[in-house]
Amino acid sequence: MGPEQAPLVMARQKDDLPAPPELPSFRVEPSEDDLDHRKRSAMERHAGTGLVRHDAFLDEAAIDPDAAKVVRRLERNGFQAYLVGGCIRDLLLGGRPKDFDVATSARPEDVRALFRNCRVIGRRFRLAHVLFGQGKVIEVATFRKSPQELEVEEDLLIRNDNVFGEAHEDALRRDFTINALFYDLDRRQVLDWCGGMEDIAKRTIRTIGEPSVRFREDPVRILRAVKFAARLDLGIEAAVYDAMISHREDLARAARPRVFEEILRFMRQGAAHRSVWILWEAGLLSILLPELAAFLDDEESHPERVARFWQQLDAVDRYTRSHGPASIDDAVLLTILFYEPLEEAIANTRDRIRAVGDFLGPVVEHIALPRRLSDSMRRIMAILPKLRAGRVVRARQGEIITLATRVLELAGAKR
After folding, report:
1. pTM above the 0.70 mark?
2. Residue ranges in 324-370 assigned as alpha helix (H)
3. Strand partners, 155
4. Is residue 261 part of a domain?
5. CA 415, CA 411: separation in Å to the nearest integer?
6. Count of structural domains, the chain
């Protein structure tokens, strides 16, 4: 013990306060089977699971050093740990991941015990977030497996996904083969249980298992397929595309906040044009945003407006590619998405705020559009005529002026 700690020890010896009560511990102690499993070599631990190992010398400079530290500390302490999912997919496809996730045999409480900069979050399924500087978070998830019991045989919608499992079970429960790849940092190998490496080579989106079953389990996977196809310029396997169309009505059963978040991701990640086009072409847009689908379906009545709509999405894509996904406010993104149908719907209307509110009313219901965003969209659309005309706007509306100005820039106000 160093000399600087001596005063602390003495103070504790003189402390007459009663000992603190014992608090309940939520640490999951490893079973004898777990301990035996950790002792086995890395090459033996997945024997008999159908694992294929691929040598893949990924660019070390592109791997987040903090994520690598998390993986290696977990491994040093006897746990399995791998980089997993989207970060591996993006690296294999030649991109740069926006974040890095870790999958491990360690339970959340085990991770918290190893990292002082860790917090455990979540009720439905607990995750460990290891925090680093500048707001960086490395998400660490314990291996899971698919739930074994379904509430109703005909209804496959997953409502309980809280079962810990093994690495191969975690891979098999994921949505698409390209998202089920694990990376062994020390051996520089990709662990593939689902044929994902072949689909990476083909640049194809394929579900793990029967597409109809996977989309019925979680209809939001349909939107994720669109997102990956658009953002990564991938093809969609024919059987997967057919199932997306066959089960598009199931999107009405999906949690609306999740649907809303996927729509924002379509707009943020540099592929808004292609994302919305796939949604429209596959008939998904009529389920998600029927007002926008109706506008695009009626192209013959307003070809110029429809042409401008796609041009505006192109402008959004150029901006987010050059400035980053968070460079445009959500209110601006959503206003651009509905800009042309809104302008058409409120033409020659004196009370623009009320007219915009009437148009957005059903949209709020379809996708759980937050009130703060719908309010901002109404105010933006109301102020646009004054900005176009160069009229003075009250200074207290400064934030809305900034947002509305960006809308004009992206919408091409000088047309």
Report:
1. yes
2. 330-345, 352-367
3. 152
4. yes
5. 9
6. 2
CA distances from 318 to 47, 329, 339, 411 (A): 47, 15, 18, 13
Note whether residue 22 is domain-resident. no
Tell me the CB-side half-sphere exposure of residue 41, using CA atoms within 13 A. 3
Q: SS3 of 337, please?
A: helix
Domain coverage including residue 61: 29-202
pLDDT(254) > 60: yes
For residue range 364-411, list pLDDT tens digits in order.
Answer: 998 999 999 999 999 999 999 988 888 766 656 678 999 999 999 999
3-state secondary structure of 2: coil
Close Cβ partners of 396 (under 8 Å, ≥ 6 residues apart): none
Q: Using CA atoms, how far apart are residues 146 and 268, in angstroms rounded to an integer?
A: 31
Sequence-separated (6 or more) residues with CB below 8 Å from residue 86: 97, 99, 101, 179
CATH number of the domain where residue 348 is located: 1.10.3090.10
Taking residues 326-334, what's their average pLDDT? Answer: 96
Which residue's structure tokens are 């998390």? 70
Interhelix angle for 303-323 vs 290-297, to 10°? 120
Answer whether residue 244 is part of any domain. no
Task: Give me the pLDDT at residue 289, please.
Answer: 96
- CB neighbours of residue 343 within 10 Å: 14
Catalogue the active-site residues.
99, 101, 175
Rounded-to-integer distance, Cα 362 and Cα 369, Å: 10
* pLDDT score, position 42: 62
CATH code where residue 166 lies = 3.30.460.10
Query: Is 32 in contact with 150 (CB distance < 8 Å)?
Result: no
Residues making up the chain, counted from first to last: 415
Q: Is the pLDDT confidence value at 188 over 50?
A: yes
Beta partners for residue 118, in sequence order: 130
The pLDDT, as a whole number, for residue 45 is 80
From residue 20, give the alpha-carbon distance in Å to each of 8, 17, 23, 25, 97: 17, 9, 9, 14, 46
* Boundary (domain end) residue, out of 184, 202, 220: 202
Residue 19 lies in a domain: no
In three-state secondary structure terms, 412 is coil
Contact 175, 181 (CB under 8 A): no
Chain Cα centroid distance, residue 134 = 20
